Each structure stands twice: as C-alpha cells, then as structure tokens.
Amino acid sequence: xxxKSRRRFLKVAGIAAIGLGAAPAMxxxxxxxxxxxxxxKTKHPDVLVxxxxxxxxxxxxxxxxxxxxxxxxCHIHHNVPDFNHEVDKEKFPKTRPVNHKQEIKWLWKEKFxxxxxxxxxxxxxxxxxxMSFPVLCNHCKNAPCVQACPTQATFSREDGIVLMDFHRCIxxxxxxxxxxxxxxxxxxxxxxxxxxxxxxxFPIRSKGVVEKCNLCAERLAKGEQPHxxxxxxxxxxxxxxxxxxxxxxxxxxxxxxxxRKQSLGTEPSVYYIV
Amino acid sequence: MTKNMIMGGLAVFVxxxxxxxxxxxxxxxxxxxxxxxxxxxxxATKCVLDKYDMRANHMSLLDEWRDAVVRDADRIYVAANGKxxxxxxxxxxxxxxxxHEDKAKFCDSCHNYTSVxxxxxxxxxxxxEIE
Lengths: 274, 131
Fold this sequence. Notes:
The complex is a heterodimer. Chain A is of the alpha+beta class. Chain A contains nine helices and eleven strands. Chain A has helices spanning 2-34, 64-77, 112-115, 126-129, 144-148, 174-178, 217-220, 227-231, 247-254; strands at residues 40-42, 53-58, 107-111, 132-136, 154-156, 162-164, 185-186, 210-211, 236-240, 257-258, 270-273. Chain B is mainly alpha-helical. Chain B has one domain. Chain B has helices spanning 2-17, 19-26, 39-43, 51-72, 96-99, 103-113, 120-123, and strands at residues 76-78, 84-86. Chain B has a two-stranded antiparallel sheet with strand order 1-2. Chain B starts with a helix and ends in an 8-residue tail after the last helix.
C-alpha cells in the first residue's frame, strides 16, 4: 500500500511538471502567431528586378560633355563630396585644407591605358590614345571586396549588385586594398563641408566610412533607372545579364565589348562597347 | 541615554537612506517630455506600432528596417494595423519624418532628456534642415 501511494504521487508530480513546463511554451507560441507576424516587409510595387544586374557602356556614344553630365548626376544625387567645393566658413569653421589624393569618387573618367592596362597593345588603335572612359564599381560576380570585408558591410546582393551597408563599415579599408579597380573611396574626413547642396533623397556619409557606386540600388527599388543611365543620352544601359532577351544582352550579342582586368577572374558586370 | 542615542541614530539613518526621495520632494525635477505630434502625425491616428510598443521598441524596429532596405531591397512595411509605410527615416511623405515633421520635438526632446545620442542624423538628413 505504501509503495503504491508513492508511485501515484510520482505520477501526479510528473504530469504536473510537464504541465508547468508546457504553459510558457504554449503562451510563447500563441504570442508568436498573432504578434509581429502579421506585419510584412515588401518591395515597392514598381521595383525593377534582375537575376544579375549589369551595365553596358557604349563608348562610341560618349564625349567629354556627356561624361561630365554622368559624373555630376551620380555625385550630386549621392551627396559625394567635391573637394574643389568652396567651404562655407560660417557653417564649418576650422575646416582643414584638403588633400586631393583623398578625393571621393563613385564614377570618374580614366584613360584607356589606366582603365584597361592588360589591353594596352604596342600599336594601339589611335582613337583609344586620348579617349576617356567612365569607370566605376564593376559589381563583380566574384567580388574580392566582399571576401575581404570583415564585417559584411560590403556584400553581394542576390541580384548581383555589390552593395555597402554604411552603418556596418568600420573603415578598415581591406576592401579598398582588395578592389583591383580602385572603385572605392575612404572618407578620411567629414564630407559634409564639401557637399554643395545636400540631396535629401540619399544619406551622406560620416568620417571613417568607405563608399562606392551602388548601381543606384535605391532607384532600382523604386522602378527608376540609375542616374548615370538617365544622364548618358543613351550611352549607358543597365539590365539583366542573365536574361537572354534583355536589352543589354542584345547589345552584347551585336557588338564587341571588353571588360576591365577580366584576367583577374573577378567577372566584372560592366561591359564597354568599343 | 543609550535609548535616545539609538533612536536619534536611527532617525538620522532613515533620513539618510531616504535622501533621494526627500531630495526629489524638495527640489523640482523636469518631467519627461512627451513627444509632440504635429501636422500629419496628429491627423493620422495610427503609427507603425501602437504607442507603447513604439516607445519601447522603435530602435529595434529601425534596425530591422535598415537591414530589410539595404540587404533585401524591401522598402515597404505593411504594419500589423494594415497601414503601409516607407521604410525610411527621412525620404518621402510616408517616412518617419514625412509624418512627424518636427524632428526637434519628436526625436530630440526625448533623446536629450534621456541622454541618448543616436548617430542617425550624422548621415541621414532632415529635409527641413536643408536651406
């Protein structure tokens, strides 16, 4: 009799323990189902999507005026500081003189033998000698900067854009060392004094952060074409490299194009029709 | 004699221990500022989360938004109450500042009171502050 009641006691105690343990789990599950779960994050209805974004630059359609237009459109709308900008002394007293080696650039022009050093033949076509090429981040398929970044501030997005999360950048500049195209710039100083008129649609950067072209991800997300495309008068086309029917694939099929330093194996996504 | 000493000592002790309380009673302290709702924010009755959730969790919400926007290109937040918002601090009508027009009265007053210095505005721009 004694043994039996002890056994019963243990049984009851065991069931009670399971009940006690289950209650919080049940509560948690109930909370989860009608808590934050009903809020959703979605894309803009007009979003432009691609499997892998790429860019084709038709150098035949470019001239110095258009190149300037492109660079200005990019830099002004992304609040890229211009070290030649005259600093407002009242707003920013104690601004040190600039070091032009520390300039910030997302898109700029480069001579053929700097842009394509591995294609510099002894007897190069004369038209390339003095021509300027727009250069920018190549949004490489095998981006070395992404591998170098210790904080995943730089990452390859699923659609092929190599993007930066400025919030996460710790300013170690490994990515700058890794990038074979010099497409990245470091903010050695507060850029604010050198921005003429801030465009409120894009943030500025702070001191100690690396920046580069983002293929206007903020515009693609809203269904707009990148600034450089709009300013290029048809010379630059952005589209899906993986889609055989896309406009850029058509351009690449019909024209001879080159890429920058493609022997390095980074698989750049920016093509130049020459 | 010893009894008086003990009672006196106890009285001093109790006063000392309760000093924060009577100090607060004697001096006037600034009440915590309420975030002021102006313009569009006043007209709209619903925010992203309800008031208390917002008060407690807006920082983690913003953190989530940041990752969604930068990493997944998700820019629209359809809240649990059915309203949709532009996941942005300062760009466009439907962003935080698009509705809460006055940053000084909405963000800064509380942040100053609680001595919190988020660095959002080092890079993000308040459209009202651009001349």
